[in-house]
Amino acid sequence: MKFKKLTVLLTCATMVASALAGCGSGESAPTGTDKGSASTEGKTSYSEDEILNLDMFITMPGSEINDDNEIAQMIAEKHGVKIKETWLTGQTASEATGTLIASDEYPDLIDSDDMSLLVDAGALVPLDEYIDKYPEFKEKWFTEDEWEKFRQPDGHIYWINPFGNSKNEPTATTHNDEAFWIQTRVLEWAGYPKIETMDQYFQVIEDYMAANPTMEDGTPNLAYTILCEDWRYFCLENAGQFLAGYPNDGSVIVDKETMTIGDYNTSEDTVKYFKKLNEEYKKGFVDPESFTQTYDEYIAKLSTGRVLGMVDQWWNFAYTVNDVFKQQGLDAKGCNYVPLGLTTEEGMENRWHTYDDTVNQASGIAITVDCEDPERAFDFLVKCAMDQELHDLRFWGVKDVDYCVDENGLYYRTDEQRMNCADTAYQASHICQYSYLPQWHGTSEDGINANKPEEQPSEFQLDMAQPLKDCLAAYGADNYVDMIGSVVEKNAAWFPMYSFSKL
After folding, report:
1. Fewer CB within 10 Å, N- or C-terminus of the chain?
2. Structure confidence by residue, pLDDT tens digits, 12-33
3. Alpha carbon of residue 487 to chain centroid
4. Do 178-352+464-499 and 2-27+44-168+360-395 have the same topology in CATH?
5. Which one, of 197, 252, 198, 162, lies nearest residue 437 by Cα?
6. Higher pLDDT, 480 or 255
7. What are 54's strand-pairing partners?
8. pLDDT for 368-423, tens place per residue?
9. Chain segment 172-188, per-residue pLDDT in tens
10. How confident is the model at residue 136, as a pLDDT?
11. Residues in Cβ contact with 402 at an 8 Å cutoff, skipping those fewer than 6 apart
12. Is the Cβ–Cβ distance between 141 and 160 less than 8 Å?
């Protein structure tokens, strides 16, 4: 298929270290299928030659699933579409997007951090007419005002953000946002102290390091590391706004009383933050590799369990690192991280957690001009959002294989099922979340279960290692959201500012 030529081009670009680096693994999407549209109206099952195979490129690191992935095949047979995902490898999002534009060959679907470049290149299909064909989806997925924020200067909508929406009642148990994270073993050793400021945070880490320079097996503990690679430098840069008590507007802070914006990078709280990092670095408590390590090196370092703390967004580390902890038994040794909503001074309100839905209009999933059947492709995106059975299959898996249902209709997993779902080989061969396609948080249509297992309160507790349970209990928290203790408030109309600005 055409995308195979493109991945070869991208690989070559990486090998010669050109300004535009390559993407993908060099594998093509499954072959043997005509990508042209077949008559599919009203169908409930599809034969192999009727399945529409689509390529999708995401400018984020990720793990490719096997071509014969079991759930992907089940989805294809019922819904007529199968997607070959390719993830960012060895280059920045801008470089990968630039390579696509230079080649003038595109995957069928794309989610890039540089969508405006693709619009300018004429690479994307306007979605307006397709959106209007699905009034229920249009009404439920975004408000009219939110849809308008996706509209580009030429009057068209080219992409849909697949994240951030909650169906029915919210069920958040994890803190998907940014925080100062710390391992439960540190807090347990310290007697679960109240930690409100960054000074208190670093003090407890220093004290733990003095008493516990190594892990049980002799591996040296590492007090604090920072990820600074490419756009992920937010792990270093963003903390100043939070320490001052502001929410994650990203590019600026917004004073609601005066309705003015300011640059938190030069604020008093940010100055205090960087002074503290400098002090800790001179003491030897900040990882000296922080400013040169790659994302992969950072994740590998966290996965050893030896890093006591860092600032990061949950989605940037937890889905990989927590699975490794579970597989290696490190969660039982207290290596899981919990979030702390720190400020520069005691008694300040913190806004590290966002309780409302956050709609980022700056990026999302788009259909490219090289997609031979954009109508069927868009129809599948709608099904991913609106078909509860399909959503359950993506995130819960196969009933009685990946989860069970009790007499009250509540979904749960056995210990074996939880371990399977954390195993990378099982994920590649069986699990298919299509994690950058439309998806819901909150309660499913049955009014009983969460749309995602990690948000199921009962499952969340059962899947937890004892040190993490003990830690939450010690702080009177049922989940990560309780642990961080942010102010509960509605998002302002502009929130988040980073979706409008790249300042």
Report:
1. C
2. 344 333 333 333 333 333 333 3
3. 23
4. yes
5. 162
6. 480
7. 83
8. 999 999 999 999 999 999 999 999 999 999 999 999 999 999 999 999 999 999 99
9. 788 989 999 999 999 99
10. 95
11. 396, 413, 417, 420, 421, 430, 431
12. yes
Residue 423: what pLDDT?
94
Amino acid at 196: E
What pLDDT does residue 362 have?
A: 84
**Which residue type is seen at 457?**
P
The tokens of 30 are what? 């499954």
Q: Provide long-range contacts, Cβ within 8 A and 24+ apart, for 133-138.
A: 134/382, 134/386, 136/386, 137/382, 137/385, 137/386
| Superfamily of 178-352+464-499 according to CATH | Periplasmic binding protein-like II (3.40.190.10)
The C-alpha angle 465, 471, 476, rounded to 5 degrees, equals 125
Is the domain spanning 2-27+44-168+360-395 CATH 3.40.190.10? The answer is: yes
Could you tell me what percent of the chain has a pLDDT over 70? Answer: 89
Q: How many angstroms separate the CA atoms of 35 and 321, rounded?
A: 37
Cis-peptide into 374, omega within 30 deg: no
Token pair belonging to 208: 């733990």
Two tokens at 67?
A: 């071509």
Annotated domain spans of the chain: 2-27+44-168+360-395, 178-352+464-499
DSSP classification of residue 498: G
User: Given its phi and psi angles, is residue 329 left (phi above 0), alpha (psi -120 to 50 degrees) or beta?
Assistant: left
Cis ω on the peptide bond leading into residue 496 (within 30° of 0)? yes
Cα–Cα distance for residue pair 31/161, rounded to 1 Å: 29
